[in-house]
Design a protein that fits this description.
By secondary structure, the chain is α+β, with helices and mostly antiparallel strands. It contains 3 helices and 6 strands, in the order ββββαββαα. The protein has helices at residues 37-45, 67-72, 93-102; strands spanning 5-6, 9-10, 13-17, 32-36, 48-50, 56-58. The strands form 3 sheets. A two-stranded antiparallel sheet has the order 1-2. A two-stranded antiparallel sheet has the order 3-4.
């Protein structure tokens, strides 16, 4: 993930919805992820997704042979999703289930 900063300001982070606006997505923390623009696009395209136990899924259909593909995508397979700030709701399982069935191009890779 891109982690650029300008002083105390994070640059390059997007608020990504797990369940899209067109499908009655609520604007709430449990339907959102803070992602860099590359990972936001990969989520929207179904290259990456989430499992029910909140780990990152990477589609077996994704191909990439360079160092960037390995570092930015393939190495994420089965990595744990970092949780929200204490007291905030984690990614909602109903939103994850929707993304798995409507967007993610499974099956998922089994390892990193």
């Amino acid at each position: 993930m891109f982690d650029g900063r300008l002083a105390d300001l994070a640059i390059g982070l997007d608020a990504a919805h797990i369940r899209w606006h067109a499908y009655d997505r609520p604007d709430e923390v449990s339907n959102g992820l803070a992602l860099c623009s590359i990972h936001h696009k990969l989520l929207d395209l179904g290259v990456v997704g989430l499992t029910s136990d909140r780990t990152i899924a990477v589609s077996q259909r994704f191909t990439g042979t360079g160092e960037s593909a390995e570092r930015l995508v393939l190495s994420l397979s089965r990595a744990p999703l970092l949780g929200p700030q204490p007291g905030a709701a984690p990614a909602g399982k109903d939103h994850i289930k929707w993304h798995q069935s409507q967007v993610f191009h499974g099956p998922a890779r089994l390892g990193g």
